[in-house]
Design a protein that fits this description.
Strand content: 35-45%
Helix content: 10-25%
CATH topology: SH3 type barrels
Radius of gyration: 12 Å
Structural class: mainly beta
Number of domains: 1
InterPro entries: Rof/RNase_P-like
CATH architecture: Roll
C-alpha cells in the first residue's frame, strides 16, 4: 500500500505511528454528505476497498483516509492537504 503514497507518506506515517503505539485518536473527517464528523478510537487496521484506502477503529468505524481532516491535532493541511 505504501508505494502508492509517495507524496502522501508523511501524514500516513503519522497514522501508522498512532496505530503501532496504540495511541487513542481523535479524528475529524468528512462524511459521505460532506459534513464534518468527529470520532475517537484506536486505529486497528489499514485496508483498501475498491481502490480506496481506509482505516478501521476499535469501535468498528471505517474511515476513508482521503476524507480525514485532522487526527490528534495534526491537520492534513500541515502535510500539503493530502493524507
Amino acid at each position: 500500500m505504501k508505494s502508492k503514497r509517495s507524496s502522501q507518506s508523511t501524514f500516513y506515517d503519522q497514522l501508522e505511528a498512532f496505530a503501532s503505539s496504540r495511541t487513542p485518536c481523535a479524528i475529524i473527517f468528512m462524511d459521505q454528505n460532506d459534513q464534518q464528523e468527529h470520532t475517537m478510537g484506536l486505529i486497528t487496521e489499514f485496508f483498501e476497498r475498491d481502490k480506496i484506502d481506509y482505516l478501521k477503529l476499535d469501535n468498528g468505524k471505517e474511515i476513508r483516509i482521503d476524507r480525514i481532516v485532522n487526527t490528534n491535532g495534526l491537520s492534513t493541511s500541515d502535510f500539503g492537504g493530502i493524507c
